[in-house]
Write a structure and sequence with these properties.
Elements (H helix, E strand, L loop, with lengths): L23 E6 L2 H14 L3 H17 L3 E6 L7 E5 L6 H7 L9 E3 L2 E6 L24 E6 L6 H20 L13 H10 L12 H11 L4 E5 L2 E4 H17 L7 E4 L5 H12 L3 E4 L6 H10 L4 E4 L13 E4 L24 E7 L7 E6 H15 L6 E4 L7 H7 L7 E4 L8 H10 L4 E4 L1 H10 L10 E4 L6 H8 L6 E6 L9 E4 L11 E2 L3 E6 L12 E7 L5 E2 L3 H7 E4 L2 E15 L5 E6 L3 E4 L2 E4 H9 L4 E10 L5 E9 L6 H9 L10 E4 L37 H14 L17 H15 L5 H6 L3 H18 L1
Parallel strand pairs: 7-16, 9-10, 9-11, 11-12, 15-16, 17-18, 18-19, 31-32
Antiparallel strand pairs: 1-6, 2-3, 2-4, 4-5, 5-6, 7-8, 13-14, 14-24, 19-20, 20-21, 22-23, 23-26, 25-26, 26-27, 28-29, 30-31
């Protein structure tokens, strides 16, 4: 008997112990035409109505799940016969009927707490009819589809939709019995209309001016208002406009125009903001090059994007050496920027022109550049303004690293509204107490967190001093409901919204306003002029409640991937229902809820999200294989020794295994810090499934010994400062004992744990501990010296 234990549908309520059993029913009375169609299916196929019911139910379940083998029980009682419906090869309905062998009189067919029967048909002379429950139909009740459901798992509406799907599919099969099951109609007309209504997001925003033009208009309206605050200094709208205009004219003179890429290699600063605004004013597209990334990665991006100009400063010059790339140091008087006219360039960018190019992790081993247009950026910012109503009294914190697309709205949205942009110091986004202090000092009203950082902010910031915050938005990865409850119980009076969107769709495309009682946090409904579509592998719409790949449409879609027409064609596909439309296939698994919002369910591939960062595991694996000592590599998102999400690398070495710290150091030459695995597990072979693919489920659970380890000899702490530091290292990393020579990062530390450590250091030592101090000296020995020196400086300056 086929095993039905592992056949599971997406349910409306959490699963409970025990076997799902239908204990509620709904009925859908068929029209005369639909009833005749069902009879015709049975008659033409020489099959019973029971076989038609089974085939229809199995076909619907196949469309729900994509599974080729559908186990269905003939009856709900324990021990009932199980029929394995074979839908491999995408058969037509007539062929599917031919594959089923079933007595004509059977009880309702059940699978995972749902059931279907065809009742009330009667038995015409010489026919093959008879209800699937063995009756000949009650007089006056009429032919109908009866759908049963387990009321502890499914809502009544789900059963009603199931009945409608069975009826719709059978009617389509009667019209063309040879049509493959994947092409048969499934959704009812009413359900299609409902989903269309959820995607009716058209808003007629003004598009006469692009973002750089709107910044100019705002600067003319409020020239003396403060536009930027950075480390205690202010820049007015007039100053921002004039500095950006001068640089824009310089860029134009260097050949920058529509779709020309300008690489920007600057730390978070006023100069960074000016460089980004100037690039848009010049008509170019900016390419952010985060100085925290390895030089090799920065040079690849600049060269791959064919950047025309590199904007940087003298202290960073030389890190990005690309032939024929004109370098402009913004702090070099020789560039003559102060001598240029302060008016904006005569030509403004068009809506179809590129605004920015941001590189994301690539599954083939190298990052890929996403080309976003002014039309998408403008729509995203106008929607945000319509939704949150930023004004001159507001202050937005700029804390997201420029290489991530959330930073885009942080940089530009305030300048369209007369608000202030509060730019935090480099690495300040990892220091929660510092963020709280800035929020208080600068009266910040609006800021963004990825969920793990929001958790740290709630834990370490002094929230009693953050009363100015009126709105927090989260994005980057799934937002846990327990974190939402903690937020609303924290004493903050701010709202909390969950936003969703990939870089390929201009930052965010859905929104959900969170509440403290939300049991699950969905990603919400589509924003203005965007659409969301849940489709199966054949491009069909998925019914409400059932999972499929999330596709996005609308004005915010990126143009595609820079210099990657093959990948662009693969991911940006034609809308199956609109030959002139485009959709972006996200790779995310999602479903519509009955209330018209979308619930994120996971991934359909090996891309992962960790601490808000999008990571293609294949890129890490390719970088590991570049190490001559590594023969095979598999990377997964697993758990570290604290039970927290972490990247785990499984390695087969060509010879003796290398220490994890050495492997990590090699990787750090190619990958940014957020892509470095925490644990390195040496294997003699990679487990494979019978079809030759990596069996990720058979990979062993990593142990503490698999954490990156130092090659240095163990040296115990020698004084009180070192002992306290070693104790804090051990508590944050969840391991011990700690040698004063051990690197925090070689022992499994990463940016999130570093933020936790620096917060504890600040509390224990009572001095400012910038993140760069830990990165510069990540051992107990080095950090102890730095802390003592910092304490002496603080005492002297007191």
């Amino acid at each position: 008997m086929p095993d039905t234990d592992h056949f599971e549908l997406w349910t409306d309520e959490p699963r409970r112990a025990g076997r799902p059993t239908p204990d509620g029913t709904v009925e859908l009375v068929l029209s005369e035409a639909d009833a005749d169609a069902v009879r015709a299916l049975a008659s033409r196929g020489g099959a019973s109505l029971g076989a038609v019911a089974l085939a229809g139910f199995a076909a619907v379940l196949h469309r729900y799940t994509g599974r080729a083998e559908i186990p269905v029980q003939a009856g709900a009682e324990p021990g009932a016969e199980t029929v394995q419906a074979d839908l491999s090869g995408d058969p037509g309905f007539a062929a599917l009927l031919g594959r089923l062998k079933l007595d004509q009189r059977q009880a309702a067919f059940t699978a995972d707490g749902l059931s279907v029967s065809l009742d009330g048909f009667g038995a015409p002379d010489g026919g093959t009819g008879g209800g699937t429950d063995g009756t000949d139909g009650t007089a006056g009740s009429g032919p109908r589809v009866v759908a049963g459901y387990d009321r502890g798992l499914y809502h009544e509406d789900t059963a009603r939709r199931l009945a409608g799907h069975v009826a719709t599919l059978l009617a389509g099969a009667a019209a063309d019995p040879a049509l493959p099951v994947s092409r048969l109609p499934l959704l009812t007309a009413a359900e299609r209309e409902t989903i269309d209504g959820w995607n009716a997001t058209e808003v007629d925003y003004p598009t006469a001016h692009t973002v750089p033009e709107l910044i100019t208009l705002q600067a003319r309206a409020t020239p003396d208002a403060v536009a930027i605050r950075f480390e205690g200094t202010s820049v007015t709208y007039r100053e921002l406009e004039e500095r950006a205009n001068r640089l824009a004219r310089h860029l134009r003179a260097l050949g920058v125009g529509p779709d020309a890429v300008v690489a920007v290699h600057l730390e978070r600063s006023v100069e960074l903001v000016v460089a980004l605004v100037a690039t848009l004013k010049a008509g170019g597209a900016y390419l952010p090059l985060d100085p925290q990334y390895p030089p090799a990665r920065l040079m690849f991006m600049a060269e791959d994007a064919r950047a025309r100009v590199l904007l940087t400063r003298r202290s960073l010059a030389g890190r990005v050496n690309v032939p024929d790339l004109r370098q402009v140091c913004l702090d070099d008087p020789a560039e003559g920027l102060d001598d240029l006219p302060a008016e904006p360039p005569a030509e403004a960018p068009a809506l179809a022109d590129l605004a920015y190019v941001i590189y994301t992790s690539g599954s083939t081993g190298m990052p890929k550049g996403v080309m976003n247009t002014h039309a998408g950026l403008l729509n995203r910012l106008l929607w945000m303004q319509e939704t949150y109503r930023l004004g001159p009294g507001d202050a937005v914190m700029q804390k997201t690293p420029c290489g991530f697309d959330v930073s885009v709205w942080e940089f530009f949205w305030p300048f369209l509204t007369g608000a202030r942009l509060v730019v935090i110091k480099p690495d300040g986004h990892k220091d929660m107490e510092y963020l709280g202090e800035v929020a208080e000092a600068e009266r910040v009203t609006f800021l963004h967190f990825v969920p793990p950082m929001l958790a740290l902010f709630l834990e370490f910031a002094d929230l009693s001093k953050c009363g100015s915050i009126r709105q927090v938005v989260c994005s980057g990865e799934a937002l846990p409901a327990d974190l939402v409850r903690r937020f609303f119980a924290s004493g903050l009076s701010a709202g909390l919204d969950n936003l969703y969107g990939p870089t390929e769709a201009a930052i965010d495309v859905t929104r959900w306003a969170c509440g403290p009682e939300d049991p699950i946090i969905p990603i919400g409904a589509p924003i203005a002029n965007t659409t969301v579509h849940v489709l199966d592998a054949h491009g069909n719409r998925m019914p409400v409640g059932m999972a499929g790949e999330l596709h996005l449409g609308g004005v915010q879609l990126a143009r595609g991937y820079l210099n990657r027409p093959d990948l662009t064609a693969e991911k940006f596909v034609t809308d199956p229902e609109d030959p002139d439309g485009r959709l972006y296939a996200t790779g995310d698994l999602a479903r519509w809820r009955a209330d018209g919002v979308v619930e994120f369910l996971g991934r359909i591939d090996h891309q992962v999200k960790l601490n808000g960062s999008r990571i293609e595991l294949g890129e890490i694996e390719a970088a590991l294989l570049a190490n001559p000592a590594v023969a095979q590599a598999v990377v997964v998102l697993g758990e570290d020794n604290r039970g927290e999400p972490a990247l785990v690398a499984y390695l087969v070495y060509r010879g003796h295994p290398e220490p994890g710290g050495r492997v990590r150091a090699r990787l750090a030459e190619r990958l940014p810090e957020y892509m470095l695995p925490t644990m390195y597990v040496a294997l003699t072979e990679i487990p494979l499934s019978p079809n030759g693919k990596v069996d990720r489920g058979a990979l062993p659970k990593p142990a503490v010994r698999d954490l990156g380890t130092s090659e240095a000899e163990f040296v115990a702490p020698r004084d009180d400062v070192e002992r306290l530091l070693a104790d804090l290292f051990g508590k944050v990393l969840g391991r011990g004992p700690i040698s004063i020579k051990d690197s925090f990062f070689d022992l499994g530390g990463h940016s999130l744990l570093a933020a936790r450590l620096t917060a504890r250091l600040r509390r224990n030592f009572g001095i400012d501990v910038p993140m760069r101090m830990l990165y510069a000296g990540p051992t107990v020995e080095s950090l102890a010296v730095a802390l003592v020196e910092a304490a002496l400086v603080a005492e002297r300056d007191a």
